[in-house]
């Protein structure tokens, strides 16, 4: 029987989390839908675009923290919309001020507006600065195994390779790159970007990923709350299947029941 989630936690920077599904907070119709979907997903880490979401920097406006309170959720500020290392570092420092010294951040430095692929040179520079500045950095990156290892060596607490372009819903397009990253990693590997439906999340977990982060796949669904619930189950099922160990793939059939000792 699969161990309860609290006995198989996702550990980030020394802190255990019962859920391996991390969710975004953008693209929902309103804060109430954000709350309902987050609850249905069972997420414990929720990522917030500091440059686009009010978490207190705009007094008098609706505040995300009113529906996702920090005492219940770990708020993961991200640097979405940043295209230089300097902008990303500045955004993380602002988040630290707004969240009373909060150290855990999600770094992403984008290369262009069309593909939203990461600028790996700027990402490396920003990661080095933030780690030296005392941040616990979870970093969005490409699916390059060499780069992923370099980010780990810099001191990032989690590496988050894309499975496909952000918001594309194309699913896992890079299984062998992800496996290579996973097998050489000593920090959690969390798929970030590209998931479109529950089976995609399950495949990521079956490959051995430690978690999945998603936003568009939930917020863009016809029923975001129901999809959030589906994603929760998919991540749990994929993790259980990975730990259970799948049977080897074979080209030919094999009997489900033993044939030794059959009469006649």
UniProtKB/TrEMBL annotation:
<comment type="function">
    <text>Catalyzes the rearrangement of 1-deoxy-D-xylulose 5-phosphate (DXP) to produce the thiazole phosphate moiety of thiamine. Sulfur is provided by the thiocarboxylate moiety of the carrier protein ThiS. In vitro, sulfur can be provided by H(2)S.</text>
</comment>
<dbReference type="GO" id="GO:1990107">
    <property type="term" value="F:thiazole synthase activity"/>
</dbReference>
<feature type="domain" description="Thiazole synthase ThiG">
    <location>
        <begin position="12"/>
        <end position="258"/>
    </location>
</feature>
<feature type="binding site">
    <location>
        <position position="167"/>
    </location>
    <ligand>
        <name>1-deoxy-D-xylulose 5-phosphate</name>
    </ligand>
</feature>
<keyword id="KW-0808">Transferase</keyword>
<keyword id="KW-0784">Thiamine biosynthesis</keyword>
<dbReference type="InterPro" id="IPR013785">
    <property type="entry name" value="Aldolase_TIM"/>
</dbReference>
<comment type="subunit">
    <text>Homotetramer. Forms heterodimers with either ThiH or ThiS.</text>
</comment>
<dbReference type="InterPro" id="IPR033983">
    <property type="entry name" value="Thiazole_synthase_ThiG"/>
</dbReference>
<comment type="pathway">
    <text>Cofactor biosynthesis; thiamine diphosphate biosynthesis.</text>
</comment>
<dbReference type="Pfam" id="PF05690">
    <property type="entry name" value="ThiG"/>
</dbReference>
<comment type="similarity">
    <text>Belongs to the ThiG family.</text>
</comment>
<keyword id="KW-0704">Schiff base</keyword>
<dbReference type="GO" id="GO:0005737">
    <property type="term" value="C:cytoplasm"/>
</dbReference>
<protein>
    <recommendedName>
        <fullName>Thiazole synthase</fullName>
        <ecNumber>2.8.1.10</ecNumber>
    </recommendedName>
</protein>
<feature type="binding site">
    <location>
        <begin position="193"/>
        <end position="194"/>
    </location>
    <ligand>
        <name>1-deoxy-D-xylulose 5-phosphate</name>
    </ligand>
</feature>
<feature type="binding site">
    <location>
        <begin position="215"/>
        <end position="216"/>
    </location>
    <ligand>
        <name>1-deoxy-D-xylulose 5-phosphate</name>
    </ligand>
</feature>
<dbReference type="GO" id="GO:0009229">
    <property type="term" value="P:thiamine diphosphate biosynthetic process"/>
</dbReference>
<dbReference type="InterPro" id="IPR008867">
    <property type="entry name" value="ThiG"/>
</dbReference>
<keyword id="KW-0963">Cytoplasm</keyword>
<feature type="active site" description="Schiff-base intermediate with DXP">
    <location>
        <position position="106"/>
    </location>
</feature>
């Amino acid at each position: 029987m699969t161990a309860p989630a609290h006995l198989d936690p996702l550990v980030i920077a020394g802190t255990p989390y019962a859920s391996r599904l991390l969710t975004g907070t953008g693209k929902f119709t309103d804060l109430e839908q954000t709350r309902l979907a987050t609850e249905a997903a069972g997420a414990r880490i929720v990522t917030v675009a500091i440059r686009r979401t009010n978490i207190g920097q705009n007094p008098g406006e609706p505040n995300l923290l009113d529906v996702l309170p920090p005492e219940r959720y770990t708020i993961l500020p991200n640097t979405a919309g940043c295209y230089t290392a300097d902008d990303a570092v500045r955004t993380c420092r602002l988040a630290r001020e707004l969240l009373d010294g909060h150290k855990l951040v999600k770094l992403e430095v984008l290369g262009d507006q069309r593909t939203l692929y990461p600028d790996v040179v700027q990402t490396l520079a920003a990661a080095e600065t933030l780690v030296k500045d005392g941040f616990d950095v979870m970093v969005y990156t490409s699916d390059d195994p060499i780069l992923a290892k370099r980010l780990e060596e810099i001191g990032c607490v989690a590496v988050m390779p894309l499975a496909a372009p952000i918001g594309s819903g194309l699913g896992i397009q890079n299984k062998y790159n992800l496996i290579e990253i996973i097998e050489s990693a000593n920090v959690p590997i969390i798929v970030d970007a590209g998931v479109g439906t529950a089976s995609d999340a399950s495949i990521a977990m079956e490959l051995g990923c430690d978690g999945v982060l998603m936003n568009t796949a939930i917020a863009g669904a016809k029923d975001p709350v129901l999809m959030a619930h589906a994603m929760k189950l998919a991540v749990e099922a994929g993790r259980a299947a990975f730990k259970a160990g799948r049977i080897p793939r074979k080209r030919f059939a094999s009997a489900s029941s033993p044939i030794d000792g059959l009469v006649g």
